[in-house]
Amino acid sequence: MELALYAPGLGYYERDKVPIGRGGDFYTSVSVGSLFGELLAFQLAEWITECGMRNAECGMGAARVQLVEAGAHDGRLAADILGWMRRQRPDVLGRLEYWIIEPSAQRRQWQEKTLVEFLPGVRWADAAFRIPQSLFQSCSSRREEAPFPLKLEPPHVGCYGVLKSPSPSAFQILFCNELLDALPVHRLGWDAQQQQWFEWHVTWSQDRFVWARRPLASDLTPALRRLPAALCSALPDGYTVEISPAAVQWWRDAASFLKQGKLLAIDYGLTEEEWLAPHRPQGTLRAYQQHHQGNDVLADPGGQDLTAHIDFTALQRAGEAAGLKTEALVSQGQFMVGIASRVWAAPASFPAWTPARTRQFQTLTHPEHLGSRFRVLIQSRGNARLA
Ligand SMILES: C[S@@+](CC[C@H](N)C(=O)[O-])C[C@H]1O[C@@H](n2cnc3c(N)ncnc32)[C@H](O)[C@@H]1O
Q: In this predicted model, what pLDDT tens digit does every residue of 109-137 receive, in sequence order?
C-alpha cells in the first residue's frame, strides 16, 4: 500500500494528474467546494478568539497561533481557510502562522502553485514528527534548519523549514482531512480452524499480485488483544480486519507535538464496537478509480486510490495516553451543522449563503452523502491561552 500510493514517480499520490474531484477518482469534502474550508475556518477563528479572550481576562497580550495542516494534497483546503480569514477575520490572519506538513516534493510544488497569493505566509515542514513513508521521504534542496518563527527574506517563495513547537504558551491547532485513511494498513485474517489471527501478505504468482496467508508478526498482536476471544471464535474463516500502526503512530506524534491547543482529524472510521461487524467480512480496504469503488486492491498499483477506515478508538486512546483530553467524536454532519448554526446567528461573519453554498452544505452534512460517512475527532491540551 505504501509503494502503490507513495513511491516517487509511480505512486498514486505522486503522479502528475490530480486525481481528486469531479474529473478524478473520488470526492473529498474539500473538492465539494469552498464551504467546507470556510466553515472550518470559522471554527478555527472561534477557538482562536476564545483563547484570546481568556488571555485578555488574565491581562495577557499579543497572541501567537500556529495552524498546522497535514495531508494538504494540492493546497485547496489551505487556500479556502486562508481566503476566508483574509476576507472575514484579518485580525486572526495577522496573528497566525500556517504550516503544511508535507513529505513529498511533488505535492509541495502543487501546494505552492495553489497558495501563491498567500506566500510567504505559508511554511512547509518535511517532518514535524516521524513520517510513515520514511522509505521514500524526499527532501527539498531548499530545505534549511530554521527555528520557529521563521524570519523570511524576500524574494523567498515557499519557505521550507523544520517545524518546531512554539513557546509553551502559544496556541496550536493541528488538523487533517482524509490523511489517516491514506496511510498504509496491515490486513489481518482469522483462521477458523487454528483459532488464531494471521496476516494477509502480497506475493507474486503467475504474472500477478495475489494474497498469501502468513503468520502474524508479534508487534501486531497487541492491537488484537482487546478483541473478546469468544467473539473471535465465532468468526468465519478468512474474516478480515485492518489495523494501521502508522496512523496511530502519527496521532501519537502529533499529540506529543501539541503543547497547547487542539488536534483534529476528519476521516472515514469506526469505533471499537463497530470494528468486528458481520456485514464486513472482507474489512474496509478498498480501491477507487474514476468514482467507482473496487474490491481488487491489488489491481493496477499506482493507478487507483487505496483507503481503509481508521480506528477512532485507537486514536482516541493514543491521544489520551499522551495527556490529551477528548472533546468530541461526532459525525461530520453534526460538526458542520453546529458551526453553520452559529454562522446563521451572525450572518455578517460569513460570505453570502448562496444556492451553491446550500448545495455544498447538503452534500457535506446529509447522512446519505458525506454527513455520516465522515467523523470528526477533537482532542485538546491545556487551557489554550494565547501568549
Ligand atoms: C485522500 S488525500 C486528502 C487530500 C485533502 N486533505 C482533501 O481533503 O482533499 C490524502 C493526502 O495525504 C497525503 N499524505 C500521505 N501521507 C502523508 C504524511 N505522512 N504527511 C502528510 N501528508 C501525507 C497524501 O499524499 C494525499 O495527498
A: 899 999 999 988 898 887 555 433 332 33
User: The pTM is what?
Assistant: 0.90
Instruction: Give the DSSP H/E element, type plus range, for residue 267.
Output: strand 261-270
Biggest CA pair distance of the chain? 72
Q: How far is the CA of 176 from the centre of ligand 1 (A)?
A: 8
Residue to mutate (ligand 1; options 12, 13, 14, 22; most atoms within 8 A of CB) = 13
Cis status, amide bond into 168, omega within 30 of 0? no
| 192 neighbors 318 (Cβ within 8 angstroms) | no
| Alpha helices in 64-168, H assignment, sequence order | 76-88, 90-93, 105-114
Architecture of the CATH domain 19-179+244-276+309-381? 3-Layer(aba) Sandwich (3.40)
**What is the CA(236)–ligand 1 centre distance, in A?**
34
Nearest CA-CA partner of 72 in 2, 148, 24, 125:
125
Query: Which sequence spans correspond to the domains of the chain?
Result: 19-179+244-276+309-381, 187-242
